[in-house]
Write a structure and sequence with these properties.
Order of helices and strands: HHEHEEHHEHEHEHEEEHEHEH
Distance between the termini: 80 Å
Bound molecules: SN-glycerol-3-phosphate, calcium ion
Number of strands: 11
CATH topology of one domain: TIM Barrel
Helix content: 25-40%
Length: 308
C-alpha cells in the first residue's frame, strides 16, 4: 500500500503543480508601443532596411520611416568611452572602412569612419554610399531624430553596463514606451528588466526554448511571460521553429510574434498566414507592397537625408 502511494506521489504532485500554474498563469499585457500601432501586420525595418541602404545608419532609419515601416530595428554596442553606438557587429570590417573591435575605439574615432563604405547592391561592382557622410550613429542621435517612431532595440554586448545606459537613455528621452528591447544574452535581458521595469522586451533564447517545449507538451497555457514579444526565425539549426501551433500558443499568451529575417514575398505571405504579427525584414518596401501599403522608393530619391 505504502509503495503504491509512493508510486503515485510524483505524478500527483506534477498534476497539482500544473493545476496551480494553470489557475494562476497570466498572459502578457499589450505594451503601449504596440497598442499605438493597431492590429494590422507590422513591418519592421531590420537594421533600418539593410537590403536597401547602409544598415544601422540615420540615413537608413530616415528612409525606412519615410517609406512607411512601422518600426525600426537596430543593434547596440558600447564605444571605449562608454557611449551607446548603433552597429551590428562587434568589429568594424564588414560595414565600415575601419578595423578592429568597436569597443576599442572612442566615439570620436568611430564617428570618423565611413559606415556606408561596404554597402553594395550589386555584389561589389559598385559602392554608391562611399564618401557620402554616412557614419555610425549614437543611440542618443537616433532617439533625438526619431522620437515618435517605435523601435526594436537589440543589446549586443553583455556584462559591460550597456543595459543601465540604455535604460537611462530611454528615460531621459521620454521614450520608454516607444521600444521593444531584445537580446540573445539572457542575463542582459534580466538586468534590463530589473533596471527598466515596464519597458517592453522580447523573449531571450531560454524563454524561447521554454515556450517551444511547453507548446510541444501541450502546456503552453501554463506560461506567464515576463516579456511581450516573441522574435524568432522561421528555422534554427535546420529545425522549424515557427510552427502554426507555436504561433497560436504565443498569441494565446498575449505575445506579439515577430519573425526574422523575412526577405522574400512568398515567405512573408507564408509566415503571415501562419499567424505572425510582424515581419522583420531587410526589405521593408517588399513587405509594404505585399500588404498593399506600397510606397515607391523612387519618390524618396530626393528625400533629404540626415547629414552627419
Ligand atoms: O530581431 C532579431 C534580429 O535582429 C537578430 O538578428 O543578427 O540581425 O541582430 P541580427
Ligand atoms: Ca538585431
Amino acid at each position: 500500500m505504502l509503495r503504491f502511494a509512493r508510486f503515485l506521489l510524483a505524478p500527483l504532485l506534477l498534476i497539482a503543480i500544473a493545476l496551480l500554474l494553470s489557475l494562476t498563469s497570466r498572459p502578457a499585457e499589450r505594451p503601449a508601443v504596440l497598442a499605438a500601432l493597431g492590429d494590422r501586420p507590422l513591418v519592421i525595418a531590420h537594421r533600418g532596411g539593410r537590403g536597401l541602404w547602409p544598415e544601422n545608419s540615420l540615413f537608413a532609419f530616415e528612409r525606412a520611416s519615410a517609406l512607411g515601416a512601422d518600426m525600426l530595428e537596430m543593434d547596440l554596442h558600447l564605444s571605449s568611452d562608454g557611449e551607446l553606438v548603433v552597429i551590428h557587429d562587434a568589429t568594424l570590417e564588414r560595414t565600415t572602412n575601419g578595423q578592429g573591435p568597436v569597443a576599442a575605439l572612442s566615439l570620436e574615432q568611430l564617428q570618423a569612419l565611413d559606415a556606408g563604405y561596404r554597402w553594395s547592391a550589386d555584389g561589389g561592382e559598385s559602392y554608391p554610399y562611399r564618401g557620402q557622410g554616412i557614419r555610425i550613429p549614437t543611440f542618443a542621435e537616433v532617439l533625438q531624430h526619431f522620437p515618435d517612431t517605435p523601435k526594436v532595440v537589440e543589446i549586443k554586448v553583455a556584462d559591460a553596463g550597456l543595459e543601465e545606459r540604455l535604460c537611462e537613455a530611454l528615460t531621459r528621452s521620454g521614450q520608454r514606451d516607444r521600444v521593444i528591447v531584445g537580446s540573445f544574452h539572457e542575463r542582459s535581458l534580466k538586468l534590463f528588466r530589473q533596471s527598466c521595469p515596464g519597458v517592453a522586451t522580447s523573449a531571450g533564447p531560454a524563454s524561447v526554448r521554454l515556450l517551444v517545449a511547453l507548446d510541444w507538451l501541450g502546456l503552453g497555457s501554463l506560461l506567464s511571460p515576463s516579456y511581450q514579444a516573441l522574435q524568432i526565425p522561421e528555422r534554427h539549426n535546420g529545425l522549424a521553429i515557427a510552427s502554426a501551433s507555436l504561433l497560436r500558443t504565443a498569441s494565446g499568451r498575449g505575445l506579439n510574434v515577430q519573425l526574422w529575417t523575412i526577405n522574400e514575398q512568398p515567405a512573408m505571405r507564408r509566415v503571415l498566414d501562419l499567424g505572425a504579427n510582424a515581419l522583420i525584414t531587410d526589405y521593408p518596401d517588399r513587405a509594404l507592397q505585399l500588404l498593399g501599403r506600397s510606397t515607391q522608393i523612387g519618390a524618396l530619391s530626393n528625400y533629404p537625408a540626415l547629414t552627419p
